[in-house]
Design brief:
CATH class of chain A: Alpha Beta
Number of strands of chain A: 5
Oligomer: homodimer
Largest interface: A-B, 37 and 37 residues
Strand content of chain A: 35-45%
Shape of chain A: globular
Largest sheet of chain A: 5 strands, antiparallel
CATH architecture of chain A: 2-Layer Sandwich
Structural class of chain A: alpha+beta
Distance between the termini of chain A: 16 Å
Order of helices and strands of chain A: EHEEHHEEH
Number of domains of chain A: 1
Radius of gyration of chain A: 14 Å
Chain lengths: ~100, ~100
């Protein structure tokens, strides 16, 4: 599996709009096992995105999907900046298909 | 929803053992919607845990479950330290029940 933990800082006042675009875009992405969009509790402009994919190739391919390209274009003006991104190898747990089959 | 993004640094050489304990302990936690255990790609001792719960009370209550108390006791000697923990409010996405029902 391939995982990403990212944070995005929205232009002030646009976090909800940005999150709505992110959430809207993530259905039907082949190989996506989990994609959670969350508000930071201490910074009112920050969004956290935690992703689990079957592999890196599926993630990379998703960036070319029409729905994702549209979301990137729509969300870009609402983004002030990106924080450090953590790349992970998810191993198991609860809420990803491999783990649910245990 | 209530979310946590945490990282734990294992005692050198014990990351796999620690991850196995974490993964083993997370089945049947009431209110847990997602609990992903992942390896950091750049630090061979670091584990990332990303959690989604229906609410904070369910998370807090899980710490008293026999399976979780047992895991904490078993894992403690394998832990070197904890990084900063991020508390979030998950809003939607893919892979949590609310989003899957969309």
């Amino acid at each position: 599996m391939f995982g990403l933990i990212s944070n995005i800082t929205a232009v002030p006042g646009r976090r909800d709009d940005l999150m709505a675009i992110l959430i809207e875009s993530v259905s039907n992405m082949p190989g996506c096992l989990s994609y959670v969009v969350a508000k930071d509790l201490t910074n009112e402009d920050t969004v956290w995105v935690t992703e689990v994919w079957d592999n890196k190739a599926s993630h990379d391919a998703s960036l070319s999907l029409p729905s994702v390209r549209k979301a990137i274009a729509a969300g870009k003006p609402m983004i002030k900046g990106f924080g450090n991104q953590v790349i992970t190898t998810p191993v198991g747990g609860y809420g990803v298909p491999v783990a649910q089959a245990r």
